[in-house]
Amino acid sequence: MSADGNGSFKFAASKSESSVPAAQASIIQHPPDGAKAWSVALGSFLLGFVTMGLMYSQGIFVEPLLNEFKADLATTSLVATLSPAMFYFCGLFASPMAIKYGVRRFTIAGSILWIVGCFAACVAPSDNGANRSGARHPPKTARHRRTSTFRL
Q1: Are 116 and 108 in contact (CB under 8 A)?
Q2: How far apart are CA 137 and CA 127, in angstroms?
């Protein structure tokens, strides 16, 4: 790069650019991992789309949760409020850990933790607040044995 007399700059072509024949210069070369890079970009977009979509549309689940767990609106809405807060708060710790342990290992460990949490939520019993006073659970009949309706 050199300055000419009127204050503008000229960029000199490098030796590699000047030594390429005109016939080869017209051929467009693609990066070797072009398809893989675009599939990663598409997967990242879809993951962000679904994650943010579910996180910020929890208002449609409030009424079914109110009916299912017989809780008040403030308690039910607290779950929808804490979800984005925990998402961003955990990001403070997730980024340094991903750098330290590697993104691939960290993602696999997070996926396994998420799967275990989903299965645990599916099999967790729901007492609908009926036994908060410490009373014994009702007998295990088909009528009284309720689990969460949110299943995989």
Answers
A1: no
A2: 9
Backbone angles phi and psi of 115, in degrees to 5: -65, -45
16 burial (CB, 10 Å; 0-12 / 13-18 / 19+) is: exposed
Q: What is the pLDDT along the chain (152 residues), one digit of tens a residue?
A: 445 555 554 545 544 455 555 555 566 666 667 788 888 889 989 988 998 888 888 888 888 888 887 888 888 888 888 888 888 898 899 989 999 999 899 989 989 998 999 899 888 876 655 545 544 445 555 554 455 555 55
User: Exposed, middle or buried, 98 (CB in 10 Å: 0-12/13-18/19+)?
Assistant: middle
The pTM for the full model equals 0.47
Report the amino acid identity of residue 83.
S
Question: Which residue bears the tokens 């997730």?
Answer: 94
Report which DSSP code applies to 148: -
Q: Is 10 helix (H, G, I), strand (E, B) or coil?
A: strand
37 contacts 31 by C-beta, under 8 angstroms: yes
Residue 119 buriedness (CB in 10 A; 0-12 / 13-18 / 19+): exposed
